[in-house]
Amino acid sequence: MFYTPATGHGLAHNPFNAIVSPRPIGWISTRDAAGRDNLAPYSFFNAIAYTPPQVMFSSLSRKADRGDTKDSLAQIRETGVFCVNIVEYGARAAMNASSAPLAAGVDEFAQAGIAKRACETIDCARVAGAPAALECVLRQIIPLEGASNFMVLGEVTGVHMRDDCLRDGRFDITAFQPLARCGYKDYAVVRELFELERPT
Q1: A GO molecular function for this record (predicted)?
Q2: What is the pLDDT of residues 78-108, one digit of tens each?
Q3: Which regions in the chain score pLDDT beneath 70?
Q4: Residues contacting 73, CB < 8 A, separation 6+
Q5: How far is CA 176 from CA 37, 53, 115, 143, 172, in A?
């Protein structure tokens, strides 16, 4: 099968999200200028640079009470900071609950029963039990083709790692089993690793 996005695929569901998978999930926490917290998962997310460490996520839709975007990006525009919380398999229900389309100003931490802690380098909350959390300062918001499509670039200014995930000097993802998005309503979990040596 071949299709062009401009003319359509003719399938019951859009295959694009499933083709580019699995994708890590950035559980993005933000705080607005009035001090109200927000938490939402984004599967168009990834690390993009080592030095300085940088991440990106994309916000691809809008809410009527937020103009051209959603709560996360609206709050980042106000404060210039955000935190990326890593999602473990054990938090899948809480992560999913935090994706509910709530009104602006409603705290998803409270609505989904998720404990929060303060960040160290930025004025923002983070998921207390997350295996890792990346405190970020906004570097760029890049408008993308399409309505309400924006890419957010942030520089990591602080890194939290749960002690039980550190083994033999490594951050061991099998200790918490990260959740990944696979398109449609499908998710995957990482439970096994293997190593490959790069050619010299």
Answers
A1: FMN binding
A2: 999 999 999 999 999 999 999 999 999 999 9
A3: none
A4: 59, 141, 150, 152
A5: 25, 22, 18, 34, 8
Helix (H) or strand (E) holding 196: none
**What is the pLDDT, as a whole number, of residue 68?**
87
Per-residue DSSP letter, 178:
B
Question: What percent of the chain is helix, strand and coil (3-state, nearest 5)?
Answer: 20, 35, 45
Q: 55, 94 in Cβ contact below 8 A? A: no
Q: What is the 3-state secondary structure (H, E, C) of 38-66?
A: EEEEECCEEEEECCCCEEEEEECCCCHHH
The residue assigned the tokens 């409603």 is: 106
Q: How many domains does the chain have?
A: 1
Domain of 162: which CATH number?
2.30.110.10
Six-digit token string for 182? 């696979």
Residue 14: inside a domain = no
